[in-house]
Amino acid sequence: MIYFGYLVTYGLLLTAVLGLLASWVDRKVTARVQYRVGPPVLQPFIDIVKLLGKETVIPAGASRALFLAAPVVGLASVILVATLLWVVSVHPGESFVGDLIVVLYLLTVPSMSIILGGFASGNPLASLGASREMKLVLAYELPFVLAAMVPVILSGLSIRLEDILSAQAQNGAVASSLSGFLALVVAVLCMQAKLGLVPFDIPEAETEIVSGPLIEFSGPGLAIYRLMKNMLLFALPFFLTILFLGGLRFDGVHLVYGVLKLVGLVALITVIRNTNPRVRIDQALRFFWGPVAALAVIAVGLALMGW
Amino acid sequence: MTSQGLTREGVLKDLEERFRDCIVEVFDKSPKRVFIEVKPEPLVRMANYLFKDLGARFNIASGLDTRSHIEILYHFTIEDLNLLISLRVKLDREHPAIDSLAPSFEAANWIEREMHELLGIDFNGHPDLRRLLLPDQWPEGVFPLRQDYEEWDPEAIRDRGV
Amino acid sequence: MDFKLRALLKSPWVFHLSTGSCNNCDIEILDCLTPRFDIERFGMVLAGSIKHADVLLVTGSCNRQSVERLKRLYEQMPKPCLVVAIGECSLSRGMFIHSYNCPKPLDKIIPVDVYIPGCPPKPEAIIAGVVKLIEKVGGTT
């Protein structure tokens, strides 16, 4: 029953606050790189509050139930993922066997909710964006799962996240070995695609298809989608930190190291975002199923050999 | 005969000799600009000669509504000589009609549609004389660029409100 | 309602519409987003879709074909919303007041909150107009 309390406090509130702060860091660093002054600290919070106060306009050709339910489904899955990750970090004994697989499955649901929302909108541009999102999910899921296999192998073939954490506490972070480092590189690229950021923000390409699947959402629906994306901006680096960089430990100086790891991953995402153009969907497919998947297979092979 | 070995005087003398009975007047305005007034009937022949044989480029056509008549100018450029030749055609105000240049070269298609709907000039032989710029609710037979155009819209507001 | 408007003023998302302009006012609006005048520090972001927008920036004298689209866009914008008219052509059609294709000025078609004169207005003038809008709607002087 500890889960319910954790769900509300850690899963929803703390992750929401930290996710919105992470998105502010992203916007501020982007502005600074472009020689601008960026938005103030509270800007993402004000965006969500303002969007909650607008009216919802449902297009005439949309299917109402799916249109209204799609954002909520996505947000619910991100809250569940965040709860699981916090429980593993704060109370390591409370988790269950196979929670790694549950997290991997739940992390596909936000993309599914964007696809659902896009197809339920009744707008051809939204359908185009949703079909591109489907192809992108096809592309990056394979290397992501392969890269998540490497910490499993290196921690003695266990699929409990706390076993991965304790193996890293004893032997050093997974990323310090060669296979772990390669798997971290693969995982960062797949994370960039999962978050929908340049160079892989194909479904939401602003200049081409005008916000893609989210084109018809307004008011509270859009607020929930933005909150979902910002919470994912915190939850995914947190997941990668647990898998590859030793997780977040709350004793003394290790807390500072943990925070630095998280901020470093967000900064890495921002730097990649600002220095790259957008790729086409067929180039992205070829990229993820070619070099990236090959790198992931090499990492798995090296992990099996013990390096 | 290509335009490579030609000079400006050579081109003008050649045009005057070839179309002696079609040209009404030649106005040599400046080294870059020549206005040639022609009769309406042989216009297609002359334009074809300029475009296909001399290799001139068709820039645009302009329509005017002067007090006595409606006239059209067709502007052709010979780039090697830096020369802009304008063929002027004067039409009757009551029923302005002329043969269309659109079957000869595609560039004249849209400009003739625009002149048809804004000035009311009929182009015989144009393949597709639809509306180009004006909205669909615009009434037929009202030509905005004529001098005697009057406001037909009762809901238009034409004062500044101050 | 007051709280909603106050949150809207702190993060207005802008949709830019040109109803037949010469594009000088559009260039000046784009100028406001560049690093020199940076309006993102006030929370203003260019919205791609009209359903995401709070403020409609209108330039250009409304000609007959774009008036139908303008009305449709205004209806699709989720309320509460604000309209800003930028440049002489959208204030009163400027020099096109007797043109055959511009029957009505903008404020007889949709309700306008702030007028920014100029042909085209400088980015400083646009920012000053936006500040006046925030003060007028926020209720302070």
Task: Kindly describe this structure.
- The complex is a heterotrimer of chains A (307), B (162) and C (141).
- Helix content of chain A is 73%, strand content 0%.
- With 307 residues, chain A is an all-alpha fold.
- In chain A, helix 2 (43-52) packs antiparallel against helix 10 (220-244), helix 3 (64-90) runs antiparallel to helix 4 and helix 6 (124-154) packs antiparallel against helix 8.
- Chain A starts with a helix and ends with a helix.
- By secondary structure, chain B is of the alpha/beta class.
- Helix content of chain B is 21%, strand content 29%.
- Chain B has 3 helices and 7 strands; from the N terminus they run αββαββββαβ.
- Chain C has a single domain, classed as 3-Layer(aba) Sandwich (Rossmann fold).
- Chain C has helices at residues 2-10, 24-31, 64-76, 88-92, 123-138, and strands spanning 13-18, 45-46, 55-59, 82-86, 114-116.
- A 5-stranded parallel sheet of chain C has the order 2-1-3-4-5.
- In chain C, strand 3, helix 3 (64-76) and strand 4 form a beta-alpha-beta unit.
- Chain C is globular.
- The model of chain C has no long low-confidence stretch (mean pLDDT 88).
- The chains are: A mainly alpha (307), B alpha/beta (162), C alpha/beta (141).
- Chains A and C meet through helix 2 of A and helix 1 of C.
Total helix count of chain A? Answer: 12
Give the SSE string of chain A.
HHHHHHHHHHHH
What is the CATH third-level topology name of chain B? Beta Polymerase, domain 2
**What is the global morphology of chain A?**
globular
Average pLDDT level of chain A: 88
Low-confidence segments of chain A: none
N-to-C SSE string of chain B, H for helix and E for strand: HEEHEEEEHE
Give the helix level of chain B as a range of percent.
10-25%
The amount of beta strand of chain A, in percent, is under 5%
Q: What value does the Rg of chain A take, in angstroms?
A: 19 Å
Determine and state the CATH class of chain B. Answer: Alpha Beta
User: What would CATH call the homologous superfamily of chain B?
Assistant: NADH:ubiquinone oxidoreductase Nqo5 subunit
Beta-strand segment tally of chain A: 0
Structural class of chain A: mainly alpha
Calculate Rg of chain B over CA atoms: 18 Å
**Count, helices of chain B:** 3
Q: Calculate the mean pLDDT score of chain B and round it.
A: 87
